[in-house]
């Protein structure tokens, strides 16, 4: 299974963080990027455990903007395992934006 925040090639991280295989540590490495800072999330034997750890750390540092929020440069934050309320909040936000855009035209 491929997770959203995983890198798409060696040394090419997503703008919101990454999960990648560390050959040196022989484990999955979790890193969160937020407020121009890199936050280490730990090493994990299983990729799915690393993806869950990524989500936990992302919720801690990004709070309300954790799923569907943006860094202001067009990068939209996504979780691997979003809660139902997070998905619902993003869906309603997108619907409001579309309605608002429709009224402008």
Walk me through the structure.
The structure is a single chain. Helix content is 35%, strand content 21%. By secondary structure, the chain is α+β, with helices and mostly antiparallel strands. It has one domain (17-104). A 3-stranded antiparallel β-sheet has the order 1-2-3, covered by helices on one side. The chain is elongated. The model is unreliable at 6-15 (pLDDT under 50).
Summarize the SSE layout with pairings.
Elements: E1 17-22, E2 27-34, E3 37-44, H1 47-62, H2 84-104
Describe this protein with a few key phrases:
105 residues, 3-stranded antiparallel sheet, 2 helices, 3 strands
User: Number of DSSP strands?
Assistant: 3
- Straight-line distance between termini: 42 Å
Order of neighbouring strands in the sheet with most strands: 1-2-3
**How many structural units, i.e. domains?**
1
For the largest beta-sheet, the strand count, sense and barrel status come to: 3 strands, antiparallel
What percentage of the residues does DSSP assign to strands (E)? 15-25%
Rg calc: 15 Å
What is the N-to-C succession of helices and strands?
A: EEEHH
Overall morphology: elongated
State the helicity in percent bands.
Answer: 25-40%
What's the rounded overall pLDDT mean?
76
Q: Which structural class is indicated by helix and strand composition?
A: alpha+beta
Parts with pLDDT < 50 across at least 5 consecutive residues? 6-15
């Amino acid at each position: 299974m491929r997770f959203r925040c995983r890198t798409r090639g060696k040394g090419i991280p997503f703008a919101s963080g990454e999960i990648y295989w560390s050959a040196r540590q022989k484990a999955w490495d979790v890193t969160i990027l937020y407020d121009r800072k890199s936050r280490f999330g730990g090493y994990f034997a299983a990729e799915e455990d690393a993806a869950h750890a990524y989500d936990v750390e992302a919720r801690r540092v990004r709070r309300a903007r954790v799923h569907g929020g943006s860094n202001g440069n067009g990068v939209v934050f996504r979780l691997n395992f979003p809660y139902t309320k997070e998905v619902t909040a993003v869906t309603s936000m997108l619907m409001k934006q579309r309605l608002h855009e429709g009224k402008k035209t």
